[in-house]
Amino acid sequence: MKEAVRLGSWPLRDVLAEWGGMPEAPGMFAISWLDLRRLPVRIDATRLDAQYVGATIDTDGVMLWFILDEAGLHLRCRYPDTLAARESVGGWLDAVVRELQTRAR
User: Fold this and answer.
1) Which among 20, 39, 41, 74 has most CB atoms closer than 10 A?
2) Dihedral sign computed on CA atoms, order 34, 62, 21, 4
3) DSSP string spanning 48-95?
4) pLDDT attached to residue 103
5) What are 60-85's pLDDT values in tens digits?
């Protein structure tokens, strides 16, 4: 655990510098999926009050993370603090959640 914390504490910008730095493409839309149930170890994310940490990045696009664990499916989102994003992304996320809940039933 100490080694993971030490490695995870390294600035991501420094790690990616050799490959051109942090990707900051205009209008970038990214989706990631993480299934914690498939890890070689079991983590009780609910009991541990697990936090998901992401790198700081300036973006004008939307980034989504779907995380699946024993408690269910969790959705994280990062989007720019603009009027257009504030007016549209929240409603769109609500629609995604409603659709997933409908399909799960």
Assistant:
1) 74
2) negative
3) HT----------SS-EEEEEEETTEEEEEEE---SHHHHHHHHHHHHH
4) 92
5) 788 898 988 888 898 999 888 889 88
Which amino acid, one-letter code, is at 62? V
Predicted confidence band of residue 93 (pLDDT cuts 50, 70, 90): very high
Look at residue 11 and give its three-state secondary structure.
Answer: coil
Distance CA 70, CA 49 (A): 13
Which residue is listed with tokens 């779907």? 66
- Is the model's pTM score more than 0.70? no
pLDDT of res. 31: 84
Q: Give the helix, strand, coil percentages of the chain, each rounded to 5.
A: 40, 20, 40
